[in-house]
Amino acid sequence: MTVLLKTLGFSVALILVFTAVSYVLPQMKGEAPVDREVDVGALTMDSFIALGKDLYQGKGTCTLCHNQLGRAPDLLAFNVEKESLQRMADSRYQGKAKDTEGYLRESMLDPNIYVVSGFGKKGSNDTESPMPAIDKPPVQLSAMEIDAIIAYLQHKDGNTVTVALPTETSSVAAAQEKTVAEIPPLAQSPEEAIAKFGCAACHSILETESTVGPNLNDVATRLSIDQIRDSIIAPTAVIAEGYPPIMPDLSERMTIKELEIIVQFLAKQTKGQS
Amino acid sequence: MLLVLMMAIVGLNGDGFLPAAAAAEVDAKAHDAAVDKDEIREETRAALIPAPKPKRSNYPNIGVSSRTIVWVVAQMHLFFGALVLAVPIFVLVIEFIGFKTNDDRYDDMAHEFMKISLTAYAITALFGGALALCLFLLYPDFMNYMMRVFGSQMLVYAVLFFLESMLLYIYYYGWDALRYGNSKWVHLTLGLLLNAVGTTLLVVANSWTTFMMAPSGVDSAGAVIGNIWEVMKGPLWNPLNLHRFIANIAFGGAVVGAYAAFKFLSAKTAAAKAHYDWMGYTSNFIAILAFLPLPFAGYWLMAEVYAYSQQMGILAMGGILAWLFVIQAVLICTILFAGNYYLWSGMARTEGSSRYQWLIKYIAVILVLGFLVWVTPHNVIYTSNEIAKLGGVNHPVLSPLGIMPAKNIAVFLMLIVTFLSFQIYRRADKVITVSWQDWGNALMVAIYIVAIGNVIFAGIYYGYFTNTVYKVGSSVIQVTSTLVVIVAGVVIDSLMFKGAKTLPSSWGKVSDRSQYALFALPIAFTWLMALMGYIRSSVRTHWHVYTVMKDNSPDNYIPTLATVGNTVTGVTLLFLIFLLFIFWIANLSGIKQIPPAPANKSVPAESAA
Asked: Between A and B, how many CB-CB pairs are < 8 A?
């Protein structure tokens, strides 16, 4: 009986050690894509682009491979418009696209039409892409969702968005397909804008304090209104001394109205002088 | 089992391979010579039935998570299934060694191992039946689809199961009746048949699993368009077959090792301790030897997962499931620590071990450093102050150690030094006498040095100084180097041991602590099997059958690590309880009650005196 208890005790203790390890690691839950209806009639180009971005990072699972780790071309690291034109001019290109929009759509629906050098499946000599057709399972995006991603990719480099906004009639099927993304509501006040874009996570502003980024409670004493605007649009252009260059580029996520709400608010922040 | 059989019969049709509707269509059309063949194909295709698309309301709700129920029952079935399929494999080898060497100890030990397997077999069948019942009850649409896809194959599985049962009982209960002379060949043949049937059962069941991960023989809507062979031979089938085959042997070896340790700790006589010490050593030998090539089978499986779907591969290794590999590191390192510690403790059985003991501290250092690198995550969650101090989210020292190339270096070095422990253990009781021993030793040392150099160089150069696409290529060099050490070590030692003088070993004179290492092995193996099984299953995410049949049940999400940990712990504890029950039963069968003296019989005068 003693041996039984000792071996049982030892085994249970060891099992609990393994369990404890599972507790100390980050706890994340992977939700299956949730079907949500998109109100096509209420879509603006901004919200359509925002939808594309959410799809790019979420349901589309594009960032799994299209990132800086080199698994697939990092679409956020170069100008998609210019790159697309170069690829269409490549002798290896066998597709029928005539413009960026067509090229992007074609590469999502049939990734094997043109495989970027070095990114083909092993042994295929860059004739076969590891990327799945985006309209087929497991990703299975609708035509409207693919358009939204194209709009986002065109917009991110400041290029003209050529994709037309979906209309009620053009997207009956798309509306049934649904999307994981929820279009965030437009911020109407400085408080809403600051909360929406998470400024307080790194900056001291309003009621919160943080030392990761410069204090914004007195930002107007250091920067002009144009400099404040520039620091949001191009955060890496000038880095405040003593702070890491980690501020995300928020220009793609903000509407002009939201940008102006924040800029006007910050331009009045002189609390450090009082 | 009966349920599976009944369902299989219902699913059987004249064609034997196609679903009933499709087969009937084929038969009808085949007799109509006037119809064009392409037309037949088109019409047949039209008659095929796509995979069902159940809504959430189609899933029975019994008030408890259906997934957890199936998860626990399936895992228990797999634990015991692994045990009963693996034990006869090495039992047959041990029996054969005993037959060839005329050493009854081997034969007795093999017979005792089978006793454990026999009890476990009944429990495997019980959990198998429970699993089928749970699946049909809780996931009716999914099971309906699987029955349609695999149809008659289920009947083959049922027949194999009955054959396995018969062979197992004849093999075990016929042991003493077929023990010597030509009869032994009959018994060995029975053992071979038993293993052939058992392995076939394994690969048949694996085809269901791999079909769910990477379906083949069906069109994009899930309708069956190929024969059963095309359905079975998906891209992941053979990698999983190999991985499970090897893993089962390692797992089986570890479990019977725990049995030997339990008996050793309970033994009252020196003879019993010696017997169970030797049994524990043999079990550990089996477990570690099977464990060493396991990572290579794992690499093949993951490489095929990536080749099938890069998305699936990245989800497992770099997505939300990646954190689970930190726990995997803890588990595998526990196995390596326990295995090595047992070998080092076992070296105390012979005085010859003093020649090699100086190496142990170096092996231990490499194991500890390897463990620390392996468990280092790429990024951890920092506070804002910490990010400000670091200048970013990447720690300058820990982040480079947290990526795959560093972990590969750690893993392969740990495997190499574990083999070194194994090798010095085997050499400890031998005095090599071959004339070329200096050259042989020098060659072995050179192979170790080159292999270690290769592992480190390939990991650093390809991992940190070349394009990402070459990172996978570096592991080929590392795998080859490690395998060369293992194969060369076994071959060179086998040649060098010819005519070697064997020093006496004191079996039974090993510390009790070492026996707990034998317990740590199956505990870590069990947890590891459950964890890796979960990861393999979870890469399907919200699909019952990847890309073909969606999982719309309330449990179609990936749970948190703590939830996974709790479930895996629960199922491991359950397995442990059943295992101790099996050990107790095996022990009970060897106990004979002394017949009581009749109450009215007087004690003879001579005895009383």
From this structure: 151
What's the pLDDT band for A184 if we cut at 50, 70, 90? low
Can you tell me the distance from the alpha carbon of B125 to that of B129, in angstroms, rounded to the nearest whole number? 6
A129: left (phi over 0), alpha (psi -120 to 50) or beta: beta
Among candidate residues B288, B289, B287, the one with its CA nearest the CA of residue B255: B287
β-strand partners of A179:
A36
Residue A246 touches partner B, C-beta closer than 8 Å: yes
Q: What global pTM score does this model have? A: 0.75
Residue with tokens 């004849």: B170
d(CA B537, CA B209): 8
A12: which chain B residues are within 8 Å (Cβ-Cβ)? 573, 576
Please report, as a single letter, which amino acid is at residue B444. Answer: M
Minimum mean pLDDT among B10-19, B117-126, B397-406, B524-533: which range? B10-19
A209 contacts chain B (CB < 8 A)? no
Q: Do B573 and A12 touch (CB under 8 A)?
A: yes
Q: Which residue has the tokens 């770099």?
A: B318
* Chain A CB contacts of B389 below 8 Å: none
Cβ B527–A69 below 8 Å, yes or no?
Answer: no
- CA-to-CA distance for A50 and A187, rounded, in angstroms? 14
A71 vs B contacts (CB less than 8 Å): 310, 314, 468
- Closest of B107, B82, B87, B505 to residue B257, by C-alpha: B87
* Tokens at B191, concatenated: 């053992």
Q: How large is the C-alpha radius of gyration of chain A?
A: 24
Of the candidates B471, B479, B492, the residue with the CA atom closest to the CA atom of residue B415:
B479
Token couple for B158 = 């049922």
The one-letter amino acid code at A236 reads: T
Find out whether B424 and B356 touch, Cβ atoms under 8 Å.
yes
Query: Are residues B90 and B587 in contact, defined by beta-carbon separation less than 8 angstroms?
Result: no
Helix (H) or strand (E) holding A7: helix A2-24
Does the predicted interface ipTM exceed a cut of 0.85?
no
| Partner-chain residue, chosen from A22, A121, A132, that has the shortest CB–CB distance to B564 | A22
List residues bridging with B549 in a β-sheet: B545
Q: Which residues of A touch B530 (CB under 8 A)?
A: none
A73 touches chain B (CB under 8 A): no
Q: Which of these, B568, B560, B315, B324, lies nearest to A27 by C-alpha position?
A: B560
Give chain B's largest Cα–Cα span: 104
Tell me the pLDDT tens digit for each residue of B51-106: 999 999 999 999 999 999 999 999 999 999 999 999 999 999 999 999 999 989 99
CA–CA dist A52, A105 (Å, integer)? 13
Most confident of B19-28, B30-39, B68-77, B111-120: B68-77
pLDDT, chain B, mean: 86
Strand pairing class (B501-502; B543-545) = unpaired
Residue B11: strand, helix, or coil: helix
**Which of B334, B385, B561 is the closest to A27 by Cβ?**
B561
CB < 8 Å from B in window 140-199 of A: none
Give the closest-approach CA distance of A160 to chain B in angstroms. Answer: 31
Q: Is A94 left (phi over 0), alpha (psi -120 to 50) or beta?
A: alpha
Inter-CA distances, B184 with B91, B130, B171, B175, Å: 14, 37, 11, 9
CB A189 within 8 A of CB A261: yes
Inter-chain contact B569–A15, Cβ cutoff 8 Å?
yes
Owner of token pair 């990477």 = B214
Q: Decide if A6 and B265 are in contact by the 8 Å CB cutoff.
A: yes
CB contact under 8 A, A21 and B326: yes
Peptide bond connecting B52 to the previous residue in cis, omega within 30 degrees of 0:
no
Nearest to B369 by CA among B332, B414, B315: B414
Q: Which helix (H) or strand (E) holds B501?
A: strand B501-502
